[in-house]
TrEMBL record:
PROSITE patterns assigned: DAO
Assigned GO CC terms: cytosol; peroxisomal matrix
Stored Gene3D superfamilies: D-Amino Acid Oxidase, subunit A, domain 2, NAD(P)-binding Rossmann-like Domain
Source organism per UniProt: Molossus molossus
Localization: Cytoplasm, Cytosol; Peroxisome matrix
EC number from the UniProt entry: 1.4.3.1
A GO molecular-function annotation: FAD binding
Alphabetized UniProt keyword annotations: Cytoplasm, FAD, Flavoprotein, Oxidoreductase, Peroxisome
Protein name: D-aspartate oxidase
Length: 341
């Protein structure tokens, strides 16, 4: 039986993790990842990469929790292996702090992260402007190392990488039997999905090796995340802004907000600005669509729209995309019933 030819469009964290999940879960496929940009040129390379989900209003919470748990388990295993350094995946402990008591008792992901608990009065003394906080241990994953790590594994399992911009998914027919669309914001043009839009985010990567705990304001707007090679300071959110240039005023504001929470950051050096466009969609799109032209069909699995929390859910949604692809492959391998004429 000939292998089923699979094209994965996009080489961010979704495209590469989906390609890897397919190579593990769906037998007898040949996989080609096609993208106009690879690491370090994607949004996924900009991300802070902390595992703290943001709820998507149009996706059921039980699904988001399942995807977060699967992602946490996958990265936890990497963090506990000899691969941790190369993949830049590490455990990190810290605090999420609030200026007023949050309305929800606990976030939906509280029993997935490790050791989730209320902060003590003694811990809260560090943050005199805040009245409530949660302490927990989660994971941080640096895209600039994790993406090449994923890419290497896809290649080791026989996958190919092709640098090419796709203008229309139908271009991939008949060279490929099935397509997985992991083009994130590119889906606006590729499939005309106007439900996805950019939320520009700016952050700073700095050297401050004494900072060991993460600190995150409950709104998620201000954060300090120590990582393997630097400390990430954030952030900003500008809906509908496609401009990839950093704004000096925003950088100043980020530094000042972070220094208010961790004054020792005034001594940080080697400050690098980064900007990325979060692919925001009220619901993550994980769905099969069959394109048809002139009596020919091309099944497509859509896998995009992760907004601010793609790293937090990527492995779980990639497993689901691989399951959808497996359904398409089974349908292709099942001979059509013969006509009774
Ligand atoms: C400042 C910032 C901080 C963030 N911090 C976190 C965090 O701490 N934790 C977290 O979980 N998430 C975070 N995120 C969100 C996370 O980065 C995204 O959810 C995630 O990277 C989306 O991955 P993706 O693969 O869908 O998209 P992308 O990384 O954008 O990849 C899309 C790919 O598709 C390709 N492509 C697009 N159109 C075409 C086309 N027509 N033809 C060929 N190729 C195409 C692109 O070149 C690219 O390779 C952050 C994002 C930003 C901007």
């Amino acid at each position: 039986m000939d292998p089923v030819r699979v094209a994965v469009v996009g080489a961010g964290v979704m495209g590469l993790s989906t390609a890897l999940c397919i190579s593990k879960l769906v037998p007898r496929c040949s996989i080609t990842v096609i993208s106009d940009k690879f690491s370090p040129g994607t949004t996924s390379d900009v991300a802070a990469g902390i595992l703290i989900p943001h709820a998507h209003p149009d996706t059921p919470i039980h699904k988001q929790k399942q995807w977060f748990r699967e992602t946490f388990d996958h990265l936890f295993a990497i963090a506990n292996s000899a691969e941790a350094g190369e993949a830049a995946v590490h455990l990190v402990s810290g605090w999420q702090i609030f200026q007023s008591i949050p309305t929800e008792d606990e976030p939906f992901w509280a029993d997935v992260v490790l050791g989730f608990r209320r902060m003590t009065e003694a811990e809260l003394k560090k943050f005199p402007q805040h009245v409530f906080g949660q302490a927990f241990t989660t994971l941080k994953c640096e895209g600039t190392a994790y993406l090449p790590w994923l890419e290497k594994r896809v290649k080791e399992s026989g996958g190919l990488m092709l640098t090419q911009r796709i203008e229309d998914l139908w271009e991939l027919h008949p060279s490929f039997d099935v397509v997985v669309n992991c083009a994130a914001l590119g889906s606006r043009q590729l499939v005309g999905d106007l439900k996805i839009f950019p939320v520009k985010g700016q952050l700073l990567n700095v050297q401050a090796p004494w900072v060991k705990h993460f600190i995150r304001d409950g709104s998620g707007l201000t954060y300090i995340y120590p990582g393997a090679s630097n400390v990430t300071l954030g952030g900003s959110r500008q809906e509908g802004d496609w401009n990839l240039s950093p704004d000096a005023e925003i950088s100043k504001d980020i530094l000042s907000r972070c220094c208010a929470l961790e004054p020792s950051l005034q001594g940080a050096w080697d400050i690098k600005e980064k900007v990325g466009l979060r692919p925001y969609r009220a619901g993550i799109r994980l769905q099969i669509e069959v394109l048809a032209r002139d009596g020919q069909r091309l099944p497509v699995v859509h896998h995009y729209g992760h907004g601010s929390g793609g790293f937090s859910l990527h492995w779980g949604t990639a497993l689901e995309a691989a399951r959808l692809l497996s359904e398409c492959v089974q349908a292709l391998r099942t001979p059509a019933p013969k006509s009774k004429m």
